[in-house]
């Protein structure tokens, strides 16, 4: 292996334009994500109701829609990341992704049948898959390695503030102003459009190195052993991490009315938002592995309790606890990945990581559905908690190996 300083020296890690801590680019992209999440979380909890109650779709179609949407999301993350690295153009791909998601709200709003609405949902996830990897790579480009934890944490915190407001706004529009469900999708287009405008006007590409016009090649062997070990551990964890829909169904199964389920979902997003930035700061100080390990263990605790409780009261504790787990892991894991690969492969590596995790979560949801039907509602949560414990043990056992083979001296070591 080349010496660390030959691969990427501290003075050249992100070029002259990189900011010492959290740059303007990161903050603005957080604002863009805020408006987009207001729009998305306004409609995410009510879309299944709109499909079944308004458009008459059978439940099998709802499941098919989620599967197609997840597939589009996961496949495009690695493609868009690869294109972003090949052409050293992040912003234009991010703009296209956010624009597609904004237009998807109108497609659903104007749909007269479930076929069109399902297409709108898949289109929305297509936009998310297109933008995610280049956006995260642009955040990494805009930040020095030793500050990436707080940069991603701040971005996720601002992002999830929108995820808090979205469900609460939907509650207000539906239950207080008595606006029909279809109109919510038209209204959701407005914040989505604001986000796209902010992105176009204020976010700038960061060129970390001169564009190389030779053929861009990427192979799995270009990824460091550190990255592969961390990916393997993350996949084990993700196989027990089923879709949020199962927590929502658990709450409904325990007798929670829809308006209170929306409040629970907003609480989850609140603790997610409040914990994201502090988690990033702590990650920069003590190292990401300790923060991620705590997050894995919190997930295990939350899921095991989801599978064990019988009183609805405990849901008011478990939804926020799950949000806290997400705040500890979401931004920190991406920041960690960005420090385990060479600079020219940042977006591709993030896309590959997110794609593999996305497909693992899709498989986890299929497993959870089968377990729910055959073994009862507790089974998927107990299984997920067990997988998180196994992943935590692997993390502890393999931690020194990841330390030893890490590429970058500026990656914080716990």
Automatic annotation (TrEMBL):
Keywords, sorted A to Z: Membrane, Transmembrane, Transmembrane helix
Species of provenance: Candidatus Wolfebacteria bacterium GW2011_GWC2_39_22
TM region(s), chain numbering: 46-71, 92-114, 157-177, 184-203, 229-249, 261-279, 291-319, 350-372, 378-398
GO function term, MF aspect, one: transmembrane transporter activity
Pfam families (UniProt xref): MFS_1
Protein name: Major facilitator superfamily
Domain Major facilitator superfamily (MFS) profile: 26-403
PROSITE patterns in UniProt: MFS
């Amino acid at each position: 292996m080349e010496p660390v300083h030959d691969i990427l020296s501290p003075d050249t890690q992100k070029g002259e334009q990189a900011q010492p801590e959290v740059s303007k680019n990161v903050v603005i992209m957080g604002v863009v994500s805020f408006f987009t999440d207001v729009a998305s979380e306004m409609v995410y909890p009510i879309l299944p109701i709109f499909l079944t109650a308004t458009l008459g779709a059978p439940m099998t179609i709802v499941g098919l829609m989620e599967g197609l949407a997840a597939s589009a999301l996961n496949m495009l993350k690695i493609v868009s990341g690869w294109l972003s690295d090949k052409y050293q153009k992040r912003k234009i791909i991010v703009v296209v992704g956010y624009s597609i998601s904004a237009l998807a709200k109108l497609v659903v709003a104007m749909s007269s049948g479930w076929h069109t609405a399902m297409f709108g949902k898949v289109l929305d996830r297509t936009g998310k898959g297109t933008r995610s990897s280049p956006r995260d790579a642009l955040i990494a480009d805009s930040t020095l390695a030793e500050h990436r934890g707080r940069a991603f944490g701040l971005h996720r915190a601002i992002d999830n503030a929108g995820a808090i407001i979205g469900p609460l706004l939907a509650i207000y529009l539906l239950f207080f102003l008595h606006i029909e469900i279809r109109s919510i999708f038209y209204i959701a287009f407005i914040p989505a459009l604001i986000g796209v405008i902010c992105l176009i006007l204020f976010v700038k590409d960061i060129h970390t190195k001169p564009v190389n016009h030779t053929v861009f090649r990427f192979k799995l062997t270009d990824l460091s052993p550190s990255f592969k070990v961390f990916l393997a551990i993350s996949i084990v964890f993700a196989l027990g991490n089923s879709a949020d829909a199962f927590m929502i169904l658990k709450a409904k199964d325990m007798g929670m009315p829809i308006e209170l389920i929306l409040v629970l979902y907003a609480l989850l997003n609140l603790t997610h938002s409040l914990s994201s930035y502090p988690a990033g700061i702590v990650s920069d100080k003590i190292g990401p592995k300790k923060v991620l390990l705590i997050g894995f263990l919190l997930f295990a605790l939350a899921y095991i309790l989801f599978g064990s409780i019988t009183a609805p009261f405990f849901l008011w504790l478990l939804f926020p606890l799950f949000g806290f787990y997400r705040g500890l892991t979401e931004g920190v894991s991406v920041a960690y990945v960005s420090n385990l690969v060479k600079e020219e492969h940042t977006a591709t590596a993030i896309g590959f990581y997110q794609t593999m995790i996305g497909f693992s979560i899709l498989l986890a949801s299929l497993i959870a559905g089968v377990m729910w039907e055959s073994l009862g509602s507790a089974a998927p949560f107990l299984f997920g908690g067990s997988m998180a414990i196994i992943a935590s043990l692997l993390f502890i056992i393999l931690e020194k190996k990841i330390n030893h083979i890490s590429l970058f001296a500026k990656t914080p070591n716990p």
